[in-house]
Amino acid sequence: MKITIVAGTRPNFIKVAAIIKEAERRIMMGQSWFKIRFVHTGQHYDTKLSEAIFKDLQLPDPDINLMAGSGTHAEQTAGIMIKFEKELQKNRPDLVMVFGDVNSTMACAITAKKLQIPVAHVESGLRSRDMSMPEEINRILTDSITDLHFTTSESASANLLKEGKSPETVFFVGNTMIDTLKVNIDKMNPKRGYSSNPYLLLTLHRASNVDDTAILRQIILNISSAAFPWKIIFPIHPRLKSDFSDAELPANLQIMQAQSYLDFLMLLLNCKGVITDSGGISEECTMLNKPCISLRNTTERPETIEMGTNVLSDGSQASLSALIDRMKNENWKQTKIPRLWDGNAANRIWDILYTIHAKSGF
Fold first, then answer.
1. Which DSSP category does 76 fall into?
2. 3.40.50.1980, 1.10.240.10, 3.40.50.2000, 3.30.230.10: which CATH number matches 2-174+344-360?
3. Where along the chain do the CATH 3.40.50.2000 domains lie?
4. Sheet holding 148-151, edge to edge
5. pLDDT tens digits for range 258-317
6. CB atoms near residue 298 (< 10 Å)
C-alpha cells in the first residue's frame, strides 16, 4: 500500500509527526505492507515555521518540496494543484493523506480525487459554521470528497454523519497533535523558560484579526491595557512583521520572532494564560489545563469550550478586561481531557489502514 502524506504548514507538521513516527516504529517491527512518501507543499517556507520544526520534531526530510510559496488563496491553491498533479503522475500512490484545513489540504485532496486516487483526511469533520473563514471552506470541500475520515472528537464524527457520510468511512481516533504534544513535553528543559515573572502568551494569524491594520492594533491595545502590568509575549507571524514599529508598541508588549515548536511549547508551559485565534493552540491549552481566550466568535473545536479551558471573546475592551482579570486572579475553569486524547491517535489510524489493506488488498 503506497501512501503519500501531504503537509505544508507548521500546524500540519505537528500532526504529521505522530503519523510518521508511528510508521517508523512499525517498519522497525518488520511491517512491510505499506510504503510512505512525504510531500511538503512549501506553503510555509519561513525557517521558524518550516525548517526548524523538522529539527524539533525529528521529522525526516520530505521526499519532495513543491515550494508553492505565498500569494492569494487562488494563486497558492492553483500553484499547489499544478505541482502536486505532476508529483502524483510521477509517483502514483494508493492513498493520499491530508491534514487539517489549510490551502494545501484542499488543493491536494482535489488533485488526488481528479486522478481517481482515494483520500484520507486526518482531523476531518470540524465545523465552525463560519463561511467567512477560508479554513471552513477548505474543511467542507475536502470532506465532501474524502474517502476515509479520521476525526479528533465525537462531535466531528457527528457532523460528518449529519452531512451524509457513510458510518463505515468515519473513524473517531483522537488527536494526532496531542500525540506529538505528549511526546515532546518530556523533552522540556525548565531553564529554557522565558521568565519567572507572570506573562500572557499571544498569537494571531487569522485574516479577520490581522488583515486590517487598524483592527489588529486595536486588539493589541485592548489586550495590553487589560493585562497591564503583566507582560504580553507575542511571537509574531511573519506576515505581520511590517505592521509594527517599536515606537508604537505598548510598554508591556514584547514581540518575538516566530518560535520553533519546542521554544513555543516552553512559552506555553510557563505562561499564566493564552490569547489566540488558533484552534490548534486552544486544543493544546485544553490538554495542558492552561487558561485560553480565543479571539473568535465561533470555534470548530467545541470540546475546548465544553470540556476545556477555552473561552471565546469578540476582542472588545470590556470582554478582554473581564476575562484577563479572571486569568490574573486564577479564577478559571478546569479542563477535562477529551476522550481518546491519550497519545495513541496515530496508532489507531495505522491499525485502521492495516485492516482496510488486509480486506481490500490495496
1. H
2. 3.40.50.2000
3. 2-174+344-360, 190-328
4. 64-65, 35-40, 2-7, 95-99, 119-122, 148-151, 170-172
5. 888 999 999 999 999 999 999 999 999 999 999 999 999 999 999 999 999 999 999 999
6. 14
* 123 grid coordinates: 482531523
What is the set of active-site residues?
205
The residues, any chain, with a CB within 8 Å of residue 45's CB and separated by 6 or more, are 67, 69, 70
What fold, for 190-328?
Rossmann fold (3.40.50)
State the Cα–Cα distance between residues 344 and 180, nearest whole angstrom: 10
Q: Quick one: pLDDT at residue 52? A: 83
Cβ-contact 226, 317 below 8 angstroms: yes
Residue 51: how many other CB atoms lie within 10 Å:
12
Total residue count of the chain as it appears in this document: 362
- With vertex at residue 180, the alpha carbon angle to CA 179 and CA 182, rounded to the nearest 5 degrees, is 70
| Residue spans of beta strands (DSSP E) within 116-241 | 119-122, 148-151, 170-172, 199-202, 231-235
Distance, in Å, from the CA atom of 277 to the CA atom of 272, rounded to the nearest integer, reads 17
**Cβ-proximal residues to 121 (8 Å cutoff; 6+ apart), any chain:** 97, 98, 99, 105, 109, 142, 143, 146, 148, 149, 150
- Contact (Cβ atoms closer than 8 angstroms) between residue 147 and residue 121: no
pTM value? 0.94
